[in-house]
Amino acid sequence: MSFIAILIPIFLIFGLGYAGQKIFRLETKSLSIVAIYLMTPFLAFRTFYETEFNLDYAVMAIYTIGLALAIIAIVYAAAYFAGYSRKRTCAIILSSAFMNNGNYGTPLVLFAFGQEGIKYAIVLMVIQQLLMCTLGVYYAAKGSIENASFKTALKEVVRVPIVYGALLGAALQFMNIPVSGTLMEAVRMVGDAAIPTVMIILGITLANISVKNLEIGPLSVSLTLRMVVSPLIALAFTFFLPADTLLKQIMIVMAAMPSAANTTMYAVQYGTDPELVSSVTLASTCLSLITLPIILYSVTFMQ
């Protein structure tokens, strides 16, 4: 019951955004710009400035990239036997290879593992954002009618401010450049506001999703990969990657997150079967109420 209690405040905040959108018809784009461009870079800066660099950073990068590539390989195999089109294959990759560890996973880790775990979660979020803005955009573009080139993905990378915030924080720490207490307090205030803001935005995003002409086959494949296969692959990684127990637990929990909300945005932007991608985002988020308590309970037995 305690694991369900962890999810209750998270879904209450999601519900606040959902209800707000249904009642007030909020302008989602402006809110997203505030969170993505003005808040999360401060959160990343603080984390990378205050966290000491060690082997865990390499482990988290290997985990994030390896998990995505493993799922993409499985999707290609499944698409081959099922005879899916390029657009359908790319849509399944978008909805299954990229998890929502930003406005869902990071708050969940904070509630479940506290301040010690949140540092790992934010680093994983930054790496995931960079991966989504390269590999994710590439597959969104590949599944579009125009079949845009990889240059499109590279253009997206330079537009992700959270990466710059992380790089600046890491650079100042590496060079031992101090940040004044007053300035750092302002950074903490903005960074602390980022997490509840992105949670509300996810609720708003879910309220905007419309599910029509649902196809059970591709939806089932995507949900199985995202909610079942992904944490199992992460579990396998924990047997080989050198990491402490807390990081291993967070890696598995993050791998069990529902589909990233940004994938819906990319699918709509490039016309890569947005109906399927948005359906998986909504269904996986709802399904996480059942799967995440099981995952959270299971990782408590890790040594």
How does this structure look, described?
Helix content is 81%, strand content 0%. With 303 residues, the protein is an all-alpha fold. The chain has one domain: Up-down Bundle (Na+/H+ antiporter like fold). The longest helix is centred in the middle third of the chain and has 38 residues, at 105-142.
In short:
It holds the Pfam family Mem_trans. By secondary structure, the chain is mainly alpha-helical.
Q: What's the architecture, going by CATH?
A: Up-down Bundle
Estimate nothing, just give the exact number of structural domains.
1
CATH class: Mainly Alpha
User: What percentage of the residues does DSSP assign to strands (E)?
Assistant: under 5%
Oligomer: single chain
Structural class of the secondary structure composition? Answer: mainly alpha
Whole-angstrom Rg: 18 Å
- What is the share of helical residues? over 70%
The overall average pLDDT, rounded, is 88
Q: Indicate the CATH topology.
A: Na+/H+ antiporter like fold
